[in-house]
Write a structure and sequence with these properties.
The complex is a heterodimer of chains A (129) and B (281). Chain A has 129 residues and is of the alpha/beta class. Chain A has six helices and five strands, in the order βαβαβαβαβαα. A five-stranded parallel β-sheet of chain A has the order 2-1-3-4-5, sandwiched between helices. Classes of the chains: A alpha/beta (129), B alpha+beta (281).
Chain lengths: 129, 281
């Protein structure tokens, strides 16, 4: 397999999930997909460890906020998180939840890639840590 | 001496006056007490109206927030598709997939607009039905077809049971919307478990049932779910405008029928629609 950083995309909208994975894969990232917070936690424990989590807020079963709470109590607590949401108060929520960054839907392709590249943790750094 | 406090034509309480022992109340005292009580009642009435207006404004604010969020989903997909197609990100082999996504999201957006138009029509009393001979089986098939992608994604298996071939004088567009709204809720809240759409004729009436075995609705929410902007589950977990059941109930009742719900949390939900085959109007 490649040494590209892995991005965990947590998003309940199947179309957005698929488009994210196309966009990010073609830009050289490996992608893991999850449709809600519970699935994302399962994926984290299954591995590989992602270098960034792209997180929606409103999702069935376990929403983004609950997922972050569980993430922070796990050994993955230091994984960078970028919120991607269409909620009007997402930016405020992102500040409260102390994540790396917040992108508002609809997101620009270029902005998405720039943000992911900026915040993603490269593999080597994580392996050393 | 006691005088009633009448708020909105009903006794909401009483004002009691206590005088010195041995003193007697005269007619003027009673008039004074009654005036005081009616002014107090008016103040209470105003407070209620004020509270209701504030609640209505809050509900509208919340609705606009949900609406903005729900519209952003499909727009994000269309946006990403177009950008992937115009940049070199998407290849020729991605095109059918991209176009299918754009088509689906376009339909989702149109669905929201239709719900808003329906809401406006209902609230301004402009909803009209065009009665014609309609076979319920055809309507169910059309509704299922329109939700085929959502159904496939949900992983729920759908079975359709039919007794007889119910035909009635109904509004085809309205009836399709009722079935679509009930079925899309069943898909959304069905938790990937089997769904059943059943319909049968029963003594000049047609009974339609849509059943899921999903998350269910708590007993105290059951009375509210047919009201506009109400939802049985938190919006942070499940999107949607909160209008589907309200629109469904309005159409069913407009056609002279009725709709009811039975549900148990974690076991599932059944919506039952009863329609007269003759329709109304």
């Amino acid at each position: 397999m490649t040494n590209n950083p892995t991005i965990l995309v947590v998003e309940d909208d199947a179309d957005i999930r698929e488009l994210m994975s196309i966009a990010l894969e073609r830009s050289g990232f490996s992608i893991i997909l999850a449709a809600d917070g519970a699935e994302a936690l399962a994926q984290l424990h299954k591995g590989p460890e992602p270098g960034l989590i792209l997180l929606d807020l409103m999702m069935p079963r376990m929403d983004g906020e609950q997922f972050l709470k569980e993430l922070r109590e796990s050994r993955f607590r230091d994984t960078p998180v970028v919120i991607l949401s269409g909620h009007v108060s997402a930016q405020k929520k992102a500040n409260e939840l102390q994540v790396e960054h917040c992108l508002m839907k609809p997101v620009e392709f270029g902005e998405l890639l720039r943000t992911v590249k900026h915040f993603v943790r490269p593999r080597q750094q994580r392996d050393v840590a | 001496m006691g005088v009633p406090l009448i708020v909105n034509d009903a006794v909401a309480g009483a004002m009691t006056f206590v005088g010195r022992s041995m003193s007697r109340y005269v007619k003027e005292n009673l008039e004074f007490a009654e005036t005081l009580a009616s002014r107090t009642a008016l103040a209470v009435e105003n407070a209620i109206v004020y509270q209701e207006a504030r609640d209505a404004l809050k509900a509208k604010d919340e609705f606009l927030t949900v609406l903005a969020h729900e519209i952003r989903g499909p727009i994000t997909s269309i946006h990403l598709c177009v950008q992937a197609m115009t940049s070199s990100t998407a290849t020729a082999s991605d095109m059918p997939k991209m176009l299918a996504i754009i088509e689906r999201e376009d339909r989702r957006l149109s669905g929201f607009v239709n719900e808003l138009v329906d809401l406006r029509k209902i609230q301004s009393g402009q909803i009209q039905f065009a009665l014609e001979e309609v076979a319920l089986g055809d309507v169910v098939r059309e509704a299922v077809d329109s939700l085929s992608t959502e159904l496939a994604e949900s992983r729920s298996a759908l079975s359709i049971t039919m007794e007889g071939r119910p035909v009635g004088q109904w509004d085809k567009y309205g009836l399709r919307q009722v079935v679509t709204n009930l079925l899309s809720n069943a898909i959304k809240f069905g938790d990937g478990k089997p769904l059943v759409v059943g319909f049968r004729e029963d003594q000049g009436k047609t009974i339609l049932q849509v059943t899921d075995h999903g998350i269910g609705i708590e007993a105290e929410k059951l009375d509210e779910i047919f009201n506009p902007f109400q939802r049985g589950v938190p919006v942070r977990n499940y999107g949607g405008l909160g209008l589907g059941l309200y629109i469904a109930r309005t159409i069913v009742e407009g056609l002279g029928g009725n709709i009811r719900v039975q549900s148990k949390p974690k076991e599932g939900t059944t919506f039952t629609v009863e329609l007269r085959n003759t329709g109304t109007l």
